Amino acid sequence: MARKKIALIGGGQIGGTLAHLAALKELGDVVIFDIAEGLPQGKALDLAQSGPVEGYDAKMTGTQDYADIKDADVVIVTAGVPRKPGMSRDDLLEINLKVMKSVGEGIRDNAPNAFVICITNPLDVMVWALQKFSGLPANKVVGMAGVLDSARFQHFLAEEFNVSVEDVNAFVLGGHGDTMVPLARYSTVAGIPVPDLVDMGWTTQEKLDAIIQRTRDGGAEIVGLLKTGSAYYAPATSAIAMADSYLKDKRRVLPCAAQLNGEYGLSNLYVGVPVIIGENGVEKIVEIKFDEQDKAGFANSVSAVEGLMDAVKKIDPSLA
Ligand code: A3D
C-alpha cells in the first residue's frame, strides 16, 4: 500500500509544526509548499534530519511548485498572514482572500481528491472562499477552529476544577471570532455537565463566565504575549486530529467549520458545528438542540460570518 501524502500549503509557524506532528505520528510523506524562497526547503531538510533520531521515515519535501502536491490525500492550508497585536482576524480579509484564490486553484489542478483543512483566518469566510475557488465538493473542504477553541475551553476548565484534561469534554460552536459560542451545557467532566458542577459548588457562575470569555479571547491573549504572530502549537495539533480522523476513518465527532445545507436552517455558508469526520470527509453534520441563550448566541455568530461574506463578495464579485 502506498504511503499517504500530506500537503501543507504555507510553511510558516503552523505549517512547520504540522509537518513535525505529521511526521512524528507517521501519517504519511509530507510536502510543504510556500512562496517564500528556501523556507519550505529549509524546514523540510531540518525535519528530515530529526527522522533518524525520532525513528520516522516520512519523506519531507519543500517546494514552490504546486505540481509537487500532486494527488495528496490531505491538504492543510495555512498560507497567508497571521494577526499582529491590535489586529482582529477580520483585518486579514483582503490579503488572505487573494491567497485563497491561488491556493484553491493549485489544489483544484493538482489534488482534486484531497481532504482539505483550512486554517487561514478569518476562518469561516476563508474556508468558504477556498471551497469555491477549488471547486472541490463541500464535504471534502472543512475549516479548523472549533477543535482549537474547544481545547482552550477544556484547558481552562481542567485548570479550574483541578482535574485531568483527559476527563474534560467541551464544545465551542459558531464562527471563529469574538462571537464564538462556548456551550457549557454540552461541556462535561467525566460526563457531568458543567452547569451541574456549578450547582455542586465546584466553581461559581462568575468564574465560569470568566472562563467562557477567556476562551473567546484565547487567540488574542496569545497574540498579545507573542507580539510577532499568533498561536501555532495548538492550532496545528487540532488540524492533525481532523486529518487523522479522515485518514483512519475514525469517525470522530469534532466541531469544525463545515458547509451547511439546510442544517440549523442555514445554507451555502460555513460555520462551526459538530461533524463526523470519516473516509468521505464530512460524513454528517450533527444538529444539536440549543436553548434560547445558545440559539441567540449562534444566530449572532452566524450574522457576523454573513457580514464578512458580504464584504468578500464585494472584493471578489465572482464569489457572489
Ligand atoms: P505564518 O507563520 O506567517 O505562515 C504563513 C505562511 O504562508 C508564510 O510562510 C508565508 O510565506 C506563506 N504564504 C503567504 N502567501 C502564500 C501563498 N500565496 N501561497 C503559499 N504560501 C503563502 O503564519 P501562521 O502559520 O502563524 O498562521 C497561518 C494562518 O493561520 C494565519 O492566517 C493565521 O491567522 C491563521 N490561524 C488560524 C487559527 C484558527 O484557529 C483558525 C489559529 C491560529 C492561526
Question: How does this model look, in words?
Answer:
The protein is an alpha/beta fold and 320 residues long. It folds into two domains: 5-144, Rossmann fold, CATH 3.40.50.720; 146-314, Lactate dehydrogenase/glycoside hydrolase, family 4, C-terminal (L-2-Hydroxyisocaproate Dehydrogenase, Chain A, domain 2), CATH 3.90.110. The protein has helices at 13-24, 39-54, 93-110, 123-134, 146-161, 194-199, 205-216, 218-226, 233-247, 292-315; strands at residues 5-9, 29-33, 60-63, 74-77, 115-118, 141-143, 168-173, 181-189, 192-193, 252-261, 267-278, 281-285. Helix 1 (13-24) runs parallel beside helix 2. It is globular and about 55 Å long. It starts with a strand and ends in a 5-residue tail after the last helix. Residues 9-15, 33-36, 39, 78-83, 92, 96, 99, 102-103, 119-121, 123, 144-145, 148, 176, 229-232, 235 line the site of 3-acetylpyridine adenine dinucleotide.
List keywords for this structure.
binds 3-acetylpyridine adenine dinucleotide, six-stranded parallel sheet, L-2-Hydroxyisocaproate Dehydrogenase, Chain A, domain 2, 44% helix, single chain, Rossmann fold, three-stranded antiparallel sheet, 22% strand, alpha/beta, 12 strands, 320 residues, 10 helices
